[in-house]
Every structure is written in structure tokens, then in C-alpha cells.
Amino acid sequence: MVVLLALVAAVQSAGLETYLPKSLFQIVFPKALPIYSYENMIAVSKIYPAFANTGDVDVDKREVAAFLGQIALESGYLQYVEEIKKPTMCEASAHYPCAPGKQYFGRGPIQLSWNYNYKNFGIAAGKDLVTNPDLVAQDPQLVWWSAYWFWNVDQWKGNIHDVVGQPGGFAYTTYIINGGLECGPNPANKGSEKSRIDNYIKFANLLGVAPGDNLSCQTSAYPPSTPWPKRVTTKTPPLDVANHDQDRHHIYPNHDQDRHHIYPNHDQDRHHIYPNHDQDRHYIYPNHDQDHRHPHDQDHLHPHDQDHRHPHDQAHRYPHDDPPPSNQCNGNRNVCFWQLTQQVLPYAKSDCQLFLTFVWCD
Asked: N or C end of the chain: which has fewer CB within 10 A?
């Protein structure tokens, strides 16, 4: 992992740190836990070269503002690395078997939850996170990688990175993260979305970019009746296609029988992918009021309420809509290729071969 960080830090000089210098990070996250170090946040972000680096400054700033706003709500401004209640969050599955005695509650900035999310992220990271789920909250690189993985890799038909710069992009991010509970004309959890929007606007103002219109998904436009925004950079990854439940195929971190939510924390009745939620509320924040799981504000809703992000909700598609590539390089030649995300990476052959999850295409 040390080699990985050294490489990614040298590969790209643009990106997140261009818009979020350490001085600003310390101002907006003054009580961040030590594991959420700024240095690792920046270095690990470069595993996904296009993150905050599209070439359009305003789009990049909005993506950074959206990312910061969402993780601020999910992790209590980086003050929590684990869900407070620590439910087991193991969905019985032949394809995503849980390890004996292990729990898959929310961990990390985005509060990755559920056994299937741990398995799929583990495939990307080259780690057995089903057997060792605590690594997501203990390893200073994996803790950030879990959030970037969820943000940049297709969870169903598309991913947050691809839609965040489009009209109505912020509303889409909330829909992907917790649409079942917070989106639509009469959602169960109205206050949480308001907190997300407030966070986003605050960070957009700090970065000097207009937040744009259509920030709320609490309209009749959700779930979207029009086609999901076209993918721009990341194709649907062929994640463990053979081991997806026939009836679910969810790559999403939190989903249940009835909904298969990709959200990390969801219950039988809700299947939220959000990391912290309880039977009745699924709050991820340690200091939350009855309805608001968010440690900061009554309005801050726990990310795991009711219908969180359920992968089978209308537009939520499992990530196996597209056929796997015809070969491990998908036709690419003389490049470093990441099969999981179907991305061409800007690494020389010698650097590419240092990564277990990347392949060099001759």
C-alpha cells in the first residue's frame, strides 16, 4: 500500500488537492479523526484519475463540494469511522457468504455497509474484506478508498462521478446514496436531504463555484422516468458476475431481499446502504436524535432510512447490465488497464505491474 501511495502521488498533480488544500481541510474538518488524514485523502483519490480532474474547473469544484458535503453528513464531519450501533448487517447469500462472527456495519467516510459491498470493494482493493471487515476502519488507505470506490465505480447504471457534473447532478448524488428514503415528492426522510444540500452549498461557496440548480431530489422527477444520465468515464464493471444472486445481482452495498439497496445500511424493511441506521432509524451518527441520525443537526437524517438507495428501485440497476469485456484488456493495447472499472490508467508498464489489481495490455 505504501508503494501504491507513492506511485499515485507522483502520477498526477491535478485533482482534489487543487481545490482542497490542507489549510482548508483543517478548517472544514477541525475534529477529523487521525485515520482520516489529509495526506491519505489526497493520495488515495488519485487511484481514480478523473476524480475532480475532468478539465472543467467548475465541474471539478462541484464534484469536490458534493463529495465533501455527502461524507460530512455520513461521517459526522469525519468524527466517526464506524457506525455507532454496529449491527451485523449480513445478508444471507450463497454468493456473498458472511464470515463467522464478522459484522458488516458502516465504516469509513461513506459508511460502507453489508457483506456484499465489503466483498465487491475487497475485490477492487485486493483484500479479503469479508473475513477482515475491520480493515476498512483501521487501514488509513482503505478507509478513504472505500469512499472513492463507491463514488467512482458503477453501483448500478452509472456512478456518482459521471452524473455529478450534469444538470441536476447533486440531486442525482443523493438519489444514488439514499434515494429510497430521501427522494420523491413525499419521502420518509425529508430533513436529511436538506442537510446534504446545505453542506453542498456551503462547500460550493467555499470553493467559489455556483452550486447550480435542481439540487433537490424531492420532486416528482424521482425516481427518474427518463433514461439515467449517460456514462462518461466509467463503464459498468464486470464485478464477480458469476457470483451475483440471480434474483438480485446487486453490487450495491446495502440491499435486501425486497429491495437490494446499495446503501450500506438498510434494514429488512429498508435495505439501506448507509452505514449507520437502526431498526427504526438506522442512524450512523453517534449523536442523533430520534429522527435524525446525523450528529450535527436535528435535520441531519441518518443515511440509512427506509428505502435507501435500493438498487432495484426504478433506475437502480445492478452493475451487470453490460457484458464482460471480450478479453482482460477490452481491446486496449500498450496501456495500463483496470478491469474492475474498465479504465485506462496513466501508468507506465513498470509502474502498472506494481499493482495487483491492474494489468498491462501489450
From this structure: C
What percent helix, strand, coil does the chain show, rounded to 5?
35, 5, 65
The three-class DSSP label of residue 289 is strand
CB 103 within 8 A of CB 55: no
Question: Rounded to an integer, what distance in angstroms lies between the CA atom of residue 328 and that of residue 297?
Answer: 47
- CA distance between the termini of the chain: 25
Question: Across 74-152, where does the E strand assignment appear?
Answer: none
Side-chain-side CA neighbours of residue 117 (13 Å): 43
Residues labelled as active-site residues = 74
CATH number listed for the domain at residues 9-243: 1.10.530.10
Convert the pLDDT of each residue in 306-342 to its tens digit: 333 333 232 222 232 233 333 578 788 888 887 655 6
Q: Rounded to two decimals, what is the model's pTM?
A: 0.63
Q: What is the DSSP string of 209-245?
A: ----S-----STT-S-SSPPPPPSS-PPP-TTGGGS-
CA dist list (Å): 126 to 123, 144, 210: 5, 15, 39
- Exposure b/e, 27-60, CB count within 10 A at least 16 = b: ebbeebeebbbbebbbbbbbbbbbbbbbeeeebb
